[in-house]
Amino acid sequence: MNNRHYNIYFHTHTVSGIVISVVLFVIFFAGSFSFFRDEIINWERSESTAITKGIQLDYNTALDTLDKQYILHGRNITISKPSNERRVAVYLEGTKDTLAPAKQKEGQFFYLDSKNFKSYTYEESYSLGEFLYRLHFLAQIPYPVGYYLSGFIALFFLFAIVTGVLVHWKKIVSNFYVFRPKEKLKTLWTDAHTSLGMLGLPFQFVYAVTGAFFMIKLLIVAPAVMALYDGDQDKLYKELEYNDPDYKYENKKLATPFDIDELVAKTKNNWSDFEITRVFIQNYGDANMHVLVEGELASHKKFTGIGKVVYRISDGKEIAKKNPETQNNYLDAVKNVLYRIHFGDYGGYALKIVSFILGIITCFVIISGVMIWLVARDKKNMPEKKRRFNEAVVHIYLAICLSMYPVTALSFIGTKLFYPLSQSNLFTLYFGVWLLLIIFFLIIKNNAFTNKFCLISGSILGFLIPITNGIVSGNWLWNSFIQNQIQIFFVDAFWTILSCITLYVAISLKPKEN
Length: 514
Description:
By secondary structure, this protein is α+β, with helices and mostly antiparallel strands. The protein contains 18 helices and eight strands. α2 packs antiparallel against α4 (128-135). It is globular.
């Protein structure tokens, strides 16, 4: 590689990395905790449920309960399970009965507890797990700004990865094994950045590609819709099999009794290890009522195994069927694979833990890249004004990034002490404390102090998380383990181990001369 190409790749890598570093850190830090979103949700609510993607629900009782509250006749009803928790998501479309009152023509979305059938709005069901999950793609920023920002950050991250590999191509093998902690600061940060960056390269590449796809796919798809489908997006969705079949509402009362639980059980028994993930009811209570039962095979049996059956209620016949073992096509694989490799939901706790570790390693790679940028510019021949500016930039970067650890730990304690904590109060707690810490560190202007304070305070708060849970809910670490409440036990054990590691690191840190 000639010098000109090397300089182009080097400066592209540096500029793209520095520009996105803070937001990228937030995305990866929050995203690392998002691997345990389901566990965090259940821990916060002191609930434990079977670790399965399938819906566990008495459909008949649930529908009878909802019918008394919302009058379901003529509605389309969707019941799904977005995460592994007790509550299921329910979407009621407005009734198709033109003579019904205006209120019945309004759509409703809420969560339904599968045990006591109590309904919750999205705001009432909001949790810390949901908050961290949505923070990792900046959903708290008004739509669509946050979505597009996170998507373009992922795209620039992809540039940084590719140019980083090109810059280090000749020394990838030799430098991968080199780590010189006793050398000068620039050497230390460079070795850490290079070796850990290469270690997490496949992980980072996958998340850069899939993250960019999820967040800015609308901008990718829009030209295709205009050119190939004459602006008709419904036609595109139909070809991509995102739209369900539509059956006409006949405005006649259904004379045949029906049992949704029986249809779900019948579908589940068609294939071994088949889990029901969605039930879609069209024209509830009408003569032309249809029920679509959809699910997928367990990941250990088949990575992409999506199946469904459509029943016509008037005569009980199956009018459409998709076999998850033999009828999945290329389209199914593409739609499913991108989601599964991004969410890491196919390998149990082992994959989640490995993904979390790689996510935190990526956070360290980001920080080390910023420190290389600072140390490389801390030269005697550089004007004092520029040196102060560079130092101020890094003070801001580190204050924002490192303070996320104690803030997240404190939020766990807050959501348990003041459960249920409303969405607005959770925002106030997390962003308020985060802002105060950032201001505090900017006043101190000491990177070493910021680092050590965040590690030690985060560790102390992390140790208090299982203690708080035990005092408030009685779910002490040993009790949840004995009672097989795996999700609750995991969160407490996770914070105990993480706090031990970060406290050890904080104690081991020693000031290093430049």
